[in-house]
């Protein structure tokens, strides 16, 4: 065979093989599960703990030791008091405490 053709075939075989030499050739790499499936598992476990939604919470601020604040605007807050479990879901922002200072004092 032509040496160029042999090199092309070897490159093609290397791109298909996911392991090293001696492993089986796979058609495609296995795609791992996404975060959506993790979220579904988390929600099902929270349902087992019988969490209930807490309405009327407009914002949640978590102040860390280094002075940054994890700020949730209009979060979904769920709680199970007997299990001592609270769940806060929503979009979060990391801010410095100086940015939040005028509005955070009344909390």
Automatic annotation (TrEMBL):
Domain NAC-A/B intervals: 36-101
Highest rank taxon of the organism: Eukaryota
SMART domains xrefs: NAC (SM01407)
Composition skew (Basic residues), residue ranges: 23-32
A matching Pfam family: NAC
InterPro entries, alphabetized: BTF3 (IPR039370), NAC_A/B_dom_sf (IPR038187), Nas_poly-pep-assoc_cplx_dom (IPR002715)
Region (Disordered): 1-37
PROSITE patterns: NAC_AB (PS51151)
Similarity remark: Belongs to the NAC-beta family.
Protein name: Transcription factor BTF3
Originating species: Ditylenchus dipsaci
